[in-house]
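Input/output pair, single chain:
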Amino acid sequence: MSSHFDLWAHFRLVGMSASGKTHQYTCVYCGRKYSRNTTRMADHLKDCSLTPEDVKTTLLNSVSEENGDSPDNSTPNSANKRKRPSGSRYRLVRHTSKREFKETERIIARAFYATATPFHSIENRHWQVMLSRFCQGYETLTKSHLSGALLDTEYSQVKSKINEILEETSRITLLTDIVIGDHNEVFINFIASTPKPIFLKSVSIHAGTEAQMADGIAFQIREIFKEIDYQKVVSIVTNDSKTARSVQNLLTGEYPHLNFYCCCSHIINLLLSDTLEVDWSKDLLCKCIDIVNYFNRNALALTTLQNCQQEKYQQIIPLVMPVLDDYETIKNCYSCLLSSKSALHSAVTEAGFIDTHICNLVMSEDFWMNLKVYSDFMDPMIETALNFETTQPALSAVFDKFHSISQHINSCNLPIKTAIATFFNQKWQLIINPMMLLAYQLDPKFRGEHLLCEHNAKVIFMVSTMAGQNSSAALSELACFRSQQDKSVFSQSSVWDCASGVDASSWWELIKPSCPNLATIANIALSQPASVNACKPKWLSPLLIQEQRAKYDVETVDKIIFLHWNLNMLEEKDLNDITAEVKSVDESRAAEDDEEN
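Output:
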């Protein structure tokens, strides 16, 4: 039968049969029910007295074309003659080939994997109606399809692409993202930065102590090194400062070329957390929460405030409730209160229902002064943490940013300045590492401007170690870079002028012919990320729980998580390559089937 006749436009899906094995449809003209059987449903349309004549004519012409007959030569009895199609079933669907059916399956399945949609949704009747409408004539998938052959095929293709990317890259940074769960369960996600992120795997371990956690992480890293070329791995970054040094001690002997450092955004968050634990800042936050709570829970007070905001600012400024572990929301809470200061003053003076505590807070100039000072203090630290949450290399900027934060702390007027300075010095000892110093030194925008003598010694040691047999030449090039020595490429002002117009790695590529040893080292140091936070999976724990509840085996869960990560991380070009490869395989198989038939 010709593909242009749309059988499914004349039937409506109503659910499953009593046995639960097939779908049931009703004729849109007479309402008669049929289990899914295209032959009987087509015959019904031809015989039904309520079917419009133009529909019957189109159907008969389609049947004639399918059988190679001319409509003009058909006999009067041909309409009532039951004809078997040449294929395995009537072609009463918009998809005219097996390849198109498979492509539709892949598109649907990939949408489930990429969005972490529960597989049982596909068996919901509303999903079935939607698919029957937009993929007419298509056999609805089940959750067993999504967790079976389709999952295996998609996983195989994406895994192949990931291996290809890892094979082509010359250096890898291994990111370990640690999520603490309940009952001493720890989820660890391993991501390879190439520098674009590639998800490797997610594991869970039971760790009651820091030593057990460090042992578990070290064991999993050894397992990863069995799958990828560990010689390509330059650094290992973790977002848990407590275990970073322990993991380093466990692995340094086996892999002496590795560098270990802690996530910079994590360190800044720890600094902000310590700051908020001081009584003065904790009291200030509690006062802000009291104000936000009062207005958000009191409809009359909130209406009065919004009217004052509209009158004064020509807009409504929502009062944000802070989340204690989310410092950006705390900053937003402070900002919205400061922006609404005048309106809050008017609201408490215009209404007589404001309680005394809230009224005293809003009218207190000391409160507003402290809030302004502390909000200004938080700004650069939160901005720095957000800037580091990128998949792009940013390690060379860490020293400069922390130096600026140190100066900011020394110049602030907070009554807790001394305590904050102590916290900062403690966190600085966690973040400083030789690779960071080397990246800061070799970035042409910074050139190690604020490095101390002890830092310079570590930079020299790193250059000497990474250069290996060419250490003398590399150290000579480093000396020229630092001093901008005459008759070297670094003495030319045009070389430094172009540094502001290109990224640091590209700058070193431009001058590599003049200093090949140092340029090679610079490209390694400048390719390192500053944070694992850009790869933090906000969806991971719910997805794990969802799949565990569905009682899938561990291997299936691992494949689902792997696909969800990488389908969202891979660039569009990589995904298109995967799709094109699968289509090519399907076409080859279809050609073989045609030859056999």
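Residues 175 and 461 are 24 Å apart (CA to CA). The chain has 26 helices and eight strands.
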